[in-house]
Structure formats: structure tokens, C-alpha cells
Amino acid sequence: MILGRVCGEIHSTINHPFYENRKMLVVDRLQPDGQLEGGYIIAIDVVDAGFGETVLVADEGNCARQVLNDPQGPVRSVIIGIVDEIQNY
């Protein structure tokens, strides 16, 4: 699982049929304290996340395919949750 913040959206005119009608977002990686870690992920959004929201990303192909219910889907990363709050102890 990866903690991240939505920073953009991907639009394409030509893409694999699997990606039809799926929203793909660019997510900056975050450290647990909310600071940028460096790097980004492009993930399919299944929770209707918006720009600037903190999200939880599953970055493993089998998990992503299970969430999307497609065992043959060409996917690696999927946004599986919107984070309301982070508490550091």
C-alpha cells in the first residue's frame, strides 16, 4: 500500500480497451507525516478521488485486478481509498 496525494488526471485519445471509461489519476507519493516522498504513480481510480485528496493506492497487479474484477486486466495500480485523517504516534 502506498500513501499519496492526487496531483493530476490522465486523458488519452487512443488506449487499450481495458481503460475505456476508467479514470486514471497521477498520485504523488507521500511519507506518513504528509511530506512528499518523491516520485509518482499512475493509478485507476475506483473511489472517485479528486485533486489534492490524500489516497491509499494498491500498487501490485494481482490486487488491482481483484479490485477491478478482471483476472487478465493489464493493470498494476488502483486507488482503493480516500484518507480522511493520518495520526502519527
Task: Offer a quick outline of the entry.
The chain is mainly beta and 89 residues long. The protein has one helix at 61-67; strands spanning 2-10, 23-30, 36-45, 54-59, 77-82. The protein has a five-stranded mixed barrel with strand order 1-2-3-5-4.
What does this structure look like?
This protein is mainly β and 89 residues long. It has a single domain (2-8, 20-82), classed as OB fold (Dihydrolipoamide Acetyltransferase, E2P), CATH 2.40.50.220. It is built from 1 helix and 5 strands. It has one helix at 61-67; strands at 2-10, 23-30, 36-45, 54-59, 77-82. Strands 1-2-3-5-4 form a 5-stranded mixed β-barrel. Strand 2 (23-30) and strand 3 (36-45) form a beta hairpin. The longest helix has 7 residues, at 61-67. The model has no long low-confidence stretch (mean pLDDT 91).
